[in-house]
Amino acid sequence: MELTPLRYFLRAADRENFTRAAEDLKVSQPALSRAVAGLERELGRPLFERDGRTVKLTDAGRTFRTQAAKIVGLADDARAELVDDGRTGAVRVAIIPTLAPYLLPGLLRSFVEIRPEAEVRVAETVTAECVRKVRAGESDLALLTTPVPDPALHVERLYEEELLAALPAGHRLAETPTLTVGDLQSEPFVLLGEAHCLSEEALSFCRRSGVQPILLERTSQLATVKALVAAGHGVSLIPAAAAAEDPGIAYRRLTGDRPTRTVVAAWDQERYVSKLTKAFLDVLRGRRAG
């Protein structure tokens, strides 16, 4: 059994679509289909249920997926360990969009100082896709916030970050001596879409405080959230690192039980962790300590 058909099978299982899997792998769709069909002949049973353009794993396919992932992972880890000199190569980092612009610039500068020959490949995407990329071996580690929706990953806490209330400049609450989440009860909220963990963190905090926010807008970019707040469309909760001197926005710390998010690094301990990845983690830990 060769590794290439296994890789094709695993990507098709992830994407549930042969065409998209082939595009990811930069091969033709017929070539991928032939490889999967060859696997099915070799194993003597179907691995996918085909329904038009969509494919779903059969019971046999689900069983085989677990073992195929182990085989491919072991082969990749063996190759990575053999060529790992700790100086050259790449660290592949998946990171959520609400962290990337604020954490990465300084982090990458610090890492380049100690590993000038190394490359850092960044994939900026939502939490679920960060986790998938680490589990699939496409990324070496993920930088995200809790909760991490996969108990198989090792999670290391890096730091807590406060969320600030973002109000339109000139809002009636912008200059009040103290501001609680209860004061925002009747305010329309502007949040990121449901795929972004920051929205769930903000909503969870409000609900724990007995406040059910009124959702006015949902968007896919934190910059858009801030622009809508500045335009007077509503209020929001914004990570402190993202709270710059934004025209049209007044940022306020909430009194009492303040909302926070926990920033973490996550990786698969069952996979080989390269010397470069360990060095990158050390830089992360150093920034946390600082």
Automatic annotation (TrEMBL):
One of its GO terms (cellular component) is protein-DNA complex. Signal peptide: none annotated. CDD domains: PBP2_OxyR. PROSITE patterns: HTH_LYSR. Transmembrane segments: none annotated. One of its GO terms (molecular function) is DNA binding. The keyword Transcription regulation applies. Keywords: DNA-binding, Transcription, Transcription regulation. The keyword Cell wall biogenesis/degradation does not apply. It holds the Pfam family LysR_substrate. Residues 1-58 form the HTH lysR-type domain. Coiled coil: none annotated. Belongs to the LysR transcriptional regulatory family. This is HTH-type transcriptional regulator GltC.
